[in-house]
UniProtKB/TrEMBL annotation:
<dbReference type="InterPro" id="IPR050624">
    <property type="entry name" value="HTH-type_Tx_Regulator"/>
</dbReference>
<dbReference type="InterPro" id="IPR001647">
    <property type="entry name" value="HTH_TetR"/>
</dbReference>
<dbReference type="Pfam" id="PF00440">
    <property type="entry name" value="TetR_N"/>
</dbReference>
<dbReference type="InterPro" id="IPR009057">
    <property type="entry name" value="Homeodomain-like_sf"/>
</dbReference>
<protein>
    <recommendedName>
        <fullName>HTH tetR-type domain-containing protein</fullName>
    </recommendedName>
</protein>
<dbReference type="InterPro" id="IPR023772">
    <property type="entry name" value="DNA-bd_HTH_TetR-type_CS"/>
</dbReference>
<feature type="DNA-binding region" description="H-T-H motif">
    <location>
        <begin position="32"/>
        <end position="51"/>
    </location>
</feature>
<dbReference type="InterPro" id="IPR036271">
    <property type="entry name" value="Tet_transcr_reg_TetR-rel_C_sf"/>
</dbReference>
<dbReference type="GO" id="GO:0003677">
    <property type="term" value="F:DNA binding"/>
</dbReference>
<keyword id="KW-0238">DNA-binding</keyword>
<feature type="domain" description="HTH tetR-type">
    <location>
        <begin position="9"/>
        <end position="69"/>
    </location>
</feature>
Length: 194
């Protein structure tokens, strides 16, 4: 790769990092392309040589999150086998890494483009599948109740999303997931255990 190509890749990465930071801080809909370019230290026009639109940039950010979540949840699923409590705790830890961005994503999802929403749904589908594979083993061993995959994951993610979306009620400063992780896992486990 020549120097110009490396520089172009570095600029693109800097724009993505700036967008990630600003979206996590302010939300997807409150941030302009000009603010992202300014935060990255590049001219406004430069951003459009890398991304044709803000939607393309938002989709790139969500796609990266989807890939990271998918890869990490897959690796974790293979490691924990049938320990559903450990898997749920680990899922919370994964979300903690991107809690601010994820919070804006779940709150603003329906206002984003169809493309962005589809990537988000793919991410949730991948995560739910891997978590349910762990749960299914525990179900087969009669340690937790048998449930349909969609009901299992929707109940779990609904609990998490309620706390994340209402952070101001549960943990106005800091991470709501860090503060309530043990409580959330214990409560959900009490609902599914036999």
């Amino acid at each position: 790769m020549n120097k110009r190509a490396i520089q172009k890749q570095e600029t693109r990465s800097k724009l993505i990092q700036s967008a990630h930071h600003l979206y996590a801080e302010h939300g997807f809909l409150a941030v302009t392309m000009e603010q992202i370019a300014q935060h990255a230290g590049v001219a406004k026009g430069t951003i459009f040589t890398h991304f044709q639109s803000q939607d393309e940039l938002i989709c790139t950010i969500i796609q990266q999150l989807r890939e990271q979540f998918g890869n990490q949840v897959y690796q974790q699923m293979r490691a924990v086998k049938d320990d559903i409590r450990f898997m749920l705790t680990w899922h919370i830890e994964l979300l903690q890494e991107h809690e601010a961005l994820y919070r804006h994503l779940i709150i603003e999802r329906t206002l984003l483009s169809e493309s962005a929403q589809l990537i988000y749904l793919e991410m949730q589908s991948i995560v739910s599948n891997y978590i349910f594979l762990v749960a299914q083993q525990a179900m087969e061993q009669h340690r937790i109740k048998k449930m349909e995959p969609y009901l299992f994951f929707n109940t779990w993610i609904g609990l998490l999303h309620y706390y994340i979306a209402n952070q101001d009620l549960f943990q106005p400063a800091g991470s709501v997931l860090t503060t309530h992780a043990d409580e959330l896992v214990a409560h959900f486990y009490s609902l599914i255990k036999i």
